[in-house]
Design a protein that fits this description.
The chain is elongated and about 105 Å long. It starts with about 25 loop residues before the first helix and ends with a helix. With about 375 residues, the chain is mostly helical. It has helices at about 25-50, 55-80, 95-130, 135-155, 180-205, 210-220, 225-245, 250-270, 275-280, 290-295, 310-364. Keywords: Membrane, Transmembrane, Transmembrane helix. This is Rhodopsin domain-containing protein.
């Protein structure tokens, strides 16, 4: 006789989320909540501990990325409240319209947040390698321009002549080449991430430093590489969703990968700022001289050198100034003592001369 496992009991009472054949919104809710919570916590650690009182331009851009991400998470929760992940037969037309608009806005905000994350990591890289020759710094500047163009172009490409209903797999005739546009956007996104990872390798190649130190710095930027896989999965899942013409539940994998992509992009921008990675860099490849390591091209980017080195440098400079002041003081005191001695000798000679005159007169 064949035995089979008993079916699970039907859910009773109040549940956080239910997964049924017609309602698969629970995974989206859970992933969105985890993505937002962990991302905000990591950013709080960055501002409160890692970069405390040493903020730079990269922190400003990453802050903008988190502000935009808050809008994206809010859009997803609005879509969930209006039936995201549920079968269309359970959701009315009004809720579907609201969900489509929220998803449409959420994807635009996703692109903008990814753009700010890329710019933040590029500015960090530019500051760490400020001692490089100008032609190498131009590579970073060119990449920054490329990312800005990508962010603006992707925002326009995914919104011009496109209806929000394309997010629900409908109205594709109102957005010609919708899937092709997304493919181009994500391909450029992947290319920029590869460039961001390759720049430190290019700069460290000619630096005479231990291989362990090089690997430590490269490992910090290697945490961006999973974004390539996440972008590919997001693109494939959305393409599969559009081709499936599902009744609403097939969009769930796309939204899950979207939240993973967004959260990891923002969190990975903090990893190269951690003390273990930056100390390995500043005590190795960047040591072209004590002053060059500490002094940064512009003040706001000086925060990347851990602040403590700057304090130590200031203290040493103050000590040198004190030593110089002490030496100058000693020189002045010596000169004064010499002058006083010479005056004393002159006065003594004058006195001796005046005292001798009456004796000579008496002798005469």
């Amino acid at each position: 006789m064949s035995s089979s496992l008993p079916l699970p009991a039907a859910p009773t009472g109040n549940r956080f989320a239910l997964v049924t054949p017609d309602d698969d919104s629970a995974p989206v809710t859970i992933v969105t909540m985890l993505s937002s919570i962990f991302t905000i916590l990591v950013f709080a650690v960055r501002l409160g501990i890692v970069k405390r009182k040493r903020y730079g331009y990269d922190d400003c851009l990453l802050s903008l990325g988190h502000v935009v991400a808050l809008g994206q998470w809010a859009a997803i929760f609005i879509a969930l409240d209006n039936g995201l992940g549920k079968s269309t037969k359970l959701v009315g037309n009004r809720e579907q319209n609201s969900s489509a608009k929220a998803l449409f806005a959420g994807r635009i905000l996703l692109i903008l947040s990814l753009c700010f994350s890329k710019l933040s990591i590029l500015l960090l890289t530019r500051s760490l390698f400020h001692w490089e020759k100008r032609r190498k710094i131009l590579i970073i500047d060119a990449t920054i321009v490329l990312v800005i163009i990508w962010g603006l172009g992707a925002t326009l490409a995914l919104s011009i002549d496109c209806s929000p209903h394309t997010m629900l797999g409908r109205g594709l005739t109102q957005c010609s080449g919708h899937v092709l546009r997304l493919r181009i956007v994500m391909i450029i996104d992947i290319i920029t991430e590869c460039i961001i990872f390759g720049i430190p390798i290019l700069f460290l190649y000619a630096v005479k430093v231990a291989n362990g130190t090089k690997l430590l710095v490269i490992a910090a930027f290697a945490f961006r590489l999973p974004l390539v896989a996440f972008s590919i999965m997001y693109l494939l899942s959305f393409t599969s969703y559009i081709d499936s013409k599902s009744s609403g539940t097939a969009i769930v994998p796309t939204m899950i990968w979207q939240e993973i992509l967004l959260g990891y992009s923002l969190m990975s921008a903090t990893i190269p700022c951690l003390k273990a990675f930056v100390e390995g860099f500043t005590t190795g490849g960047g040591r072209l001289g004590e002053i060059e390591v500490v002094r940064m091209p512009y003040e706001s980017e000086g925060s990347y050198e851990l602040g403590q080195m700057r304090k130590n440098m200031h203290r040493s400079l103050e000590r040198l100034e004190n030593i110089e002041d002490t030496g100058t003081h000693l020189q002045h005191s010596r000169r004064r003592s010499r002058r006083s001695n010479s005056k004393t000798i002159e006065e003594a000679s004058i006195r001796s001369q005046t005292s001798e005159q009456p004796i000579i007169g008496m002798a005469i």
